[in-house]
């Protein structure tokens, strides 16, 4: 099992793509602008999209991906791409993106019977089985309904989990659950520097001081990767992060990085 970082930035600029991870060849975790770097045949190989929440930096790849791969998938007789998310997230996509005004409704195209996208609700705590891989839906605390994910590395890894927090402020329920799991990696957001702590709190993101409090609830010594930093803010955020006293190995996540499970 392999996870490739297609994008991990909190906004865009040349060389900075927003959140998207590719699990093996066929499962996309969030669909930010990083998706657009995949060649067409790789886009057409995606069978599942898991969404952490409805914010644009995490979903804008879906409507464009659906349009890009429709012909190839229909020609190959492939089933709809399954979009998995909270019911509230799916309702938001349907109402505000696939509404015939922002974008055509690809849950009914090219036909109602055989569309290119299908929507599949999940709940926090669900364990999805996608092509033999187990992915648990974790709680998150954000300005809209939101989740994180834990990908089970399977027996060969001793059930080590790759965990992605999604966008979240302080999240006690997450640490309760993670205390029961073995972790290979923790990808956690730190969207703002301490100078912007107020903004972090209003928008339910973390700053380095919050991150320190959060990580103090995580046992052991874990490979922690920081995500969702805005372009131009990496030095300020990582200076705050590196100043934390922590038993964990903390570094900034980079686009293009691969993490084996
Ligand atoms: Zn968000
Ligand atoms: Zn975001």
Features:
261 residues; alpha/beta; 7-stranded mixed beta sheet; 14 strands; binds zinc ion
Structure summary:
Helices cover 25% and strands 27% of the residues. The chain is α/β, with parallel strands linked by helices.
Structure write-up:
It is a single chain. With 261 residues, the protein is an alpha/beta fold. Helices cover 25% and strands 27% of the residues. It has eight helices and 14 strands. The strands form two sheets. Strands 6-5-4-3-2-1-14 form a seven-stranded mixed β-sheet. It has a seven-stranded mixed β-sheet with strand order 7-8-9-10-11-12-13, with helices on one face. Strand 9 (147-152) and strand 10 (160-164) form a beta hairpin. Helix 7 (208-215) runs parallel beside helix 8 (234-242). Bound molecules: zinc ion (2 copies). One zinc ion is lined by residues 53, 55, 142, 167.
List the helices and strands and how they pair.
Layout: E1 2-7, E2 20-23, E3 27-31, H1 40-44, E4 48-50, H2 56-59, H3 61-75, E5 81-85, H4 87-96, E6 117-121, E7 127-130, E8 133-139, E9 147-152, E10 160-164, H5 172-178, E11 182-189, H6 197-202, H7 208-215, E12 223-227, H8 234-242, E13 249-252, E14 258-260
Helix pairs in contact: 7-8
